[in-house]
Write a structure and sequence with these properties.
A two-stranded antiparallel sheet has the order 1-2. It has a two-stranded antiparallel ribbon with strand order 3-4. 29% of the residues are buried. The chain folds into two domains: 64-71 and 96-235, no CATH class; 237-311. The termini are far apart. By secondary structure, the chain is mainly α. It is built from 14 helices and four strands. Mean pLDDT is 79; it is low at 193-197 and 206-230. Helix 2 (25-34) runs antiparallel to helix 3 (43-61). The protein is globular and about 70 Å long. Strand 3 and strand 4 (278-283) form a beta hairpin.
Length: 312
């Protein structure tokens, strides 16, 4: 409702012609983020909005396990976001319109998203120890981070149980969490706890710390390599299945179009990233635009037929 009010306040439209219902949440975020005349959102604002909306959906329709620190962060970040949008769009202080209400209280407010994630990953791995029979608890805890990962890439869909099971397996196998959730690693908490106004925001990390490692320390060296690759995984943020979903194709037809456009020959669109002994085939969001433009000019049925003929 706040987003719709902001759009209307800036002379925008919240109802499409001949539609009975007003536009939905995703459309409001898109307009607030990309419409040059109406724009009132930053990428960080949109990230928080998508994350909170995704968590609400997860809590409503699935099993979700949020730690007290996570709950505190999202509640306070939501209030901060509401105040920032309200004050900037309507040019008046939120405290004049809303009562002074006690907000979430925590004896140890979260300051570092990475430290918070480290703690949750340890808990997930503990729940997945053979014989504990607590896999569903681990999936419930992993869901909140999967939702945040999707929010970073602009994905509004809920992660499936199959996707969450794969995530839990990767973490259980000891894969560094920045490689599992590269988008989450690219953000952090920006806090302003001075004075009476408390602010918590998600911000992009300025850089990724890298330290040299002796060759004898193999396991730690693999973890350091994984950390170095996070910035690449942030850019090449899509797997083949995710890319297919973004362009509205089945995976086989998407791969046929990728071959037709020689996407994998251009490092603007594709890169193989090695973490430890595993090679990941990753695509950048630029590949989405390239493929969509091609589909406007060519028939996917013709491309698919030519692809099958070549395989024969």
């Amino acid at each position: 409702m706040l987003l719709k009010a902001a759009i209307r306040h800036r002379q925008g439209k919240i109802r499409k012609p001949r539609e009975k219902q007003t536009i939905g949440f995703a459309a409001c975020v898109r307009i607030g983020l990309t419409d040059g005349n109406l724009r009132f959102l930053t990428s960080e604002y949109a990230l928080v909005l998508r994350a909170i909306n995704g968590l609400r959906d997860a809590a409503q329709h699935y099993l979700l396990d949020l730690s007290e620190h996570e709950l505190y962060f999202y509640a306070q970040a939501g209030v901060t976001l509401f105040r920032d949008i309200h004050d900037s769009v309507f040019d008046q202080s939120m405290v004049l319109d809303l009562p002074e209400t006690v907000l979430p209280v925590s004896t140890t407010a979260p300051r570092d998203l990475s430290a918070l994630f480290d703690k949750d990953v340890e808990e997930i791995r503990r729940l997945l120890v053979p014989g504990t029979r607590r896999k569903m608890d681990a999936i419930a805890k992993a869901r909140s981070w999967a939702v945040l990962e999707g929010a970073v890439s602009g994905d509004y869909e809920q992660p499936s149980d199959h996707d969450l099971a794969k995530i839990c397996k990767r973490l259980s196998d000891g894969e560094p969490w920045p490689a599992v959730f590269p988008g989450v690693f690219s953000i952090n908490i920006s806090s302003d706890l001075d004075g009476p106004k408390i602010s918590l925001r998600l911000t992009k990390n300025n850089g990724i710390p890298v330290r040299l490692q002796r060759e004898s320390e193999e396991e730690e060296a693999e973890a350091v390599v994984a950390m170095r690759r996070v910035n690449e995984l942030d850019f090449y943020s899509l797997g083949a299945k995710q890319l297919a979903g973004k362009v509205g194709l089945t995976l086989p037809k998407s791969l046929a179009l990728i071959d037709h456009l020689r996407i994998r020959d251009n490092d603007e669109f594709y890169k193989e990233i090695r973490i430890g002994k595993t090679i990941y085939h990753r695509y950048s969001p630029k590949a989405i635009k390239k493929m969509r433009e091609a589909l406007e000019m060519e028939s996917i049925d013709r491309i698919w037929a030519a692809h099958k003929a070549r395989r024969k």
